[in-house]
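Morning. Coffee machine broken again, so started the prediction first thing and wrote up yesterday's gels while waiting. Chain of 441 residues, entered below exactly as on the submission form.
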Amino acid sequence: MAAGLGSRMMDLTVRTPKPLLPIGNKPMVWYSVSLLEEAGFKDAFIVIRKSALKDVKKTLEEVHPVNINLEYILISDSEESGTADILRHIKDKITTDLLVVSCDLVVEILLQNLVDLHRIKDADLTMLLAPEPDISQTSVPCPKVNRKLEQDYIGIEENTKRVVYMKAVSDCPEGHNLNVSLLERHPSFTISKRLMDAHLYLMKKEMLDVLVDCSHISMVKGELVPMLVNKKVEITKKQKLGNSGQIGLDDFPADDDEEIDLDEAVEQMCLNYVPKRGEVRQRATCYAHVLETGLCIRANTLVTYCEANRQIAKREAAQNLAKAPATTGATAGATGKQSQQTSTDSLISESATLGERVGIKWSVIGDHSKIKDQVKITNCVIMDHVTIDSGAVLTGCIVGDNAHILGKAELKDSIVGSGQTVNLGKYSNEVLLDANQMMEI
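Came back before lunch.
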């Protein structure tokens, strides 16, 4: 899902589509597509805005190519659609169970673990949860930015991993009450408000029928999942019966020369056993795979976008250092006269050029950027094709692609829009955009 407008970070997405915002020198959308590729997927739909098609295709096919067949589903630039709306739109193209991934998700996960839980529990929807990121110390332009994360009370049975309770914290200003009937059905479960919904969902194809029947549903996370958790959704499940009226091996068609794995067949029989012939109506179920450790963050706000860059820079810089221990920092491959003042947790593109006595700490430097002599950069995200003239000092800034920072300019905790030229002077807590561009922080 890459059709989001990035409304909570509009100052960055006015000229750059949200899926193409860089995170650690790769576009945001690359991480979710790469996740599918690493998991063995051969084909995927990618939902994007019509205006972003050309640039996204070029990025995923030429600049950062992926080895997966992508079919692009186009959404009008003026259309406001939730995930559920989009799934209804492409329903006829989907013939199997489906995995839905948000393009702003950056995660390190073995997807097979989530798939195993989904199959073993015969779940109708399985979601990925992870501890919410610690953003208390994340350096962000404009310090008054809202750092509050969206939170939910999520109740999970420890033994089964079934989600039995879910409610937004914002809907419970005075706390929340649990129904007696819920406690009777599920006497033992744990509630937490520190788990983040990663917006990665594995769901049965039948869930699309639910979305068609419930056409008022626009969002998966905010509407469909709570309905499943609260047992307000029923789906039709077909029985798998043999000729005798009982489940048998003839329910698992095979070629004449194909051997049947008896263990797998027995497992499938157990998972799909229904005591009656025909179809039955069952309440849909929702389960959660909780990622205990590792990277998992949604770059859907200015704060989490900065934190995602920090995390990726830290990880990739460590990997680069391990591969080339003789180099200084993460600048191996970058063109420069002297780069000894770059920290080991910065990430600098191999196509960037560095001048003399450049100091870079805890920052990301994008492709083909030119950092001239005696420039100091700390806690910044510098996007692609940026030019920073000699003597400039930047601290806690985000600089959009093709921007030009003139010599000896000093910027602190500021955002520079794409294509902007910043003149000599001191800037603090400012958003430097065209006059006709929107700002939302």
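Residues 240-276, 326-332, 435-441 have pLDDT under 50 and may be disordered. Going to sketch it on the whiteboard this afternoon.
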